[in-house]
Write a structure and sequence with these properties.
The protein has 118 residues and is mainly beta. It is built from one helix and seven strands; from the N terminus they run E-E-H-E-E-E-E-E. Helix content is 8%, strand content 46%. It is elongated, with a radius of gyration of 16 Å.
């Protein structure tokens, strides 16, 4: 039986260069004040898609902040406290959803747009 390649995961589909970031706390050595900054975890390839009209209406009905979805190859070091930067936009990860075949091929990241200070 030939190996099935998931429809969304051939290398040509992952055409967007993304920066995966995580929030870190640093302490000012002079004042001792804690500050929050974002640091790069990895540069990755992925596919950024705005929600379709139907998906957007459905998300609004659920009062969801999700405006886009990003699909990347599977990684085990991503969680919803992280964000992705792409072409000057910030995408806040709202959830990490594994693929429905093996759970280890790719992940879909429903995202909201905007600066995440928090």
């Amino acid at each position: 039986m030939p190996e099935m390649i998931p429809a969304g995961m051939n290398s040509g589909m992952l055409r967007h260069r993304l920066t995966l970031q995580k929030r870190v706390e640093t302490q000012d050595p002079v004042t001792g004040e804690l500050t929050h900054t974002w640091t790069t975890v990895a540069e990755i390839w992925g596919k950024v898609e705005a929600l379709s009209g139907r998906e957007f209406i459905s998300a609004q009905a659920l009062q969801s902040k999700v405006t886009a979805k990003i699909r990347i190859r599977y990684r085990d070091d991503i969680d919803a406290s992280m964000r992705i930067s792409h072409r000057g936009k910030i995408y806040n990860i709202e959830a990490v959803l594994p693929d429905n075949i093996s759970g280890l091929e790719w992940i879909t990241l429903p995202c909201s747009e905007g600066v995440n200070d928090g």
